[in-house]
Design a protein that fits this description.
Structural class: mainly beta
Shape: elongated
Number of helices: 0
Helix content: under 10%
Strand order of the largest sheet: 1-2-3-4
Largest sheet: 4 strands, antiparallel
Length: about 425
């Protein structure tokens, strides 16, 4: 019989080795005789970690549980004493405290817990995204909490003071396996677009599923925006279509189609009567939602547009994209009013996100170089640039009080940047 060993732990007297295996058991090996004395079946999904505690053997399992078995020198040798369910993902690492009364356990979902072996109670020490963070969102006027969406299939609401997770939202049970959130809006609820074409609503306090719009778009929802009166949802799709939904009834109100490629960014004017959309087809379109018609078009000369932002006076639109420039467009003029190369030295930083501060004084940009840049809104002077992400920055937001910027990146990390 061949076993693939994942983790080893040694007894205090160095006479016995315990080996957890992919076959779901752990083997007890006598060092002197070099023989397997016994094996204990733990789970059908593999044993990923094992440690020798004071009165028991602690095993981290592939089914997301931590199981305690009787100590190898006790009468309960190999007997299951207790088990604890974590977050459903494999427990891949265990570390014993100095007094052997507690362990730190880590899962593949990025959760770290501290488990008391005497009471079998645990507290969550840390939670993290394990794949790219694709969207960051704040609720209006709420500095203490923000939400993030990730390709690991989760949406998390964070406490910005304690840096802890308030709740985690996941896909519905009837969605195709592998569906991930692609865009996000945060108000009194969490609204998200998903890779399978659905729009989901989750409770912002518990993460529970509330309702959904099935087949909101074919293949994927690429952009989403909530109206200022919280009555309508504007969504964009991978094939260039834009759709307006009544939130209470979840009924389709308007279907707008002029973009030739995926819609990358959506904005609504403060009165919710006009919308602005950007696309990889190099165009920025302004729509009258009452007449359901396009009323203006900006066309970039080269490269698709990844993100747009509307100035507070509603007279200008800022854009970043494949052209690697920060571009300012007059709301009623076809040509760009100003263009600034994002990275003047190398011209290698493709802009992925742009945001204007709530007081209208600053612009923040992020892109493929992983650098946050802060600009003066009035002069377009570069004020500061900082690098923390190890890969592309996909999304960034100013806090409602404009004292911090929160960014999420392809490296799965979230950074909070202090401006003042």
């Amino acid at each position: 019989i061949f076993r693939q060993v994942i983790s080893l732990s040694v007894s205090d007297d160095n006479e016995t080795v315990f080996a957890s295996t992919t076959s779901g058991d752990y083997a007890v090996i006598n060092v002197r005789s070099k023989r397997i004395v016994s094996s204990v079946l733990v789970t059908k999904m593999g044993c990923d970690a094992i440690v020798v505690a004071e009165n028991c053997m602690v095993v981290g399992c592939g089914d997301g549980t931590i199981k305690c078995f009787g100590h190898y020198e006790s009468n309960t040798d190999g007997q299951l004493l207790c088990q604890t369910q974590i977050d459903g993902s494999p427990v891949v690492s265990l570390s014993l405290s100095k007094d052997r009364s507690e362990i730190l356990a880590c899962t593949t979902h990025g959760t770290v817990i501290r488990l008391n072996l005497n009471t079998n109670n645990y507290i969550t020490v840390a939670e993290n995204h394990t794949k790219a963070v694709v969207a960051i969102a704040f609720a209006s006027g709420l500095n203490e909490r923000f939400a993030s969406a990730s390709y690991d299939g989760t949406i998390r609401v964070w406490d910005a003071i304690e840096f802890s997770v308030v709740c985690t939202a996941r896909m519905r049970s009837n969605q195709p396996r592998g569906s991930v959130p692609t865009c996000l809006s945060f108000s009194n609820i969490l609204l998200s677009g998903w890779s399978d074409g659905k729009v989901l609503a989750h409770d912002a306090d518990s993460g529970n599923n509330l309702w959904f719009i099935d087949n909101a778009h074919q293949d994927c929802v690429t952009s989403l925006c909530l109206s200022h009166n919280n009555r309508f949802i504007l969504t964009g799709g991978i094939h260039g279509e834009i759709r307006l939904w009544e939130m209470r009834s979840r009924e389709l109100i308007s279907h707008l189609k002029e973009h030739g490629q995926k819609v990358t960014s959506l904005l609504l004017c403060p009165d919710d009567t006009q919308a602005i959309s950007a696309s990889r087809d190099r165009s920025i379109l302004r729509w009258d939602l009452r007449s359901e018609k396009r009323v203006f078009c900006h066309q970039q000369r080269m490269g698709g547009i990844n993100s747009i932002a509307l100035t507070r006076d509603e007279q200008h639109v800022l854009s970043v994209g494949q052209e690697r420039k920060l571009v300012c467009w007059g709301i009623n003029t076809p040509n760009a009013k100003a263009q600034h190369i994002i990275d003047g030295d190398r011209e290698e930083d493709e802009g992925r996100c742009v945001e204007i501060s709530n007081n209208g004084r600053y612009i923040a940009t992020g892109g493929t170089a992983g650098v946050i840049r802060l600009w003066n809104m009035a002069t377009f002077e570069l004020l500061s640039e900082c690098k923390g992400h190890s890969n592309t920055i996909n999304s960034l937001r100013f806090t409602p009080d404009d004292k911090q910027i929160v960014s999420g990146g392809e490296d799965g990390s979230i950074f909070l940047w202090c401006i003042f």
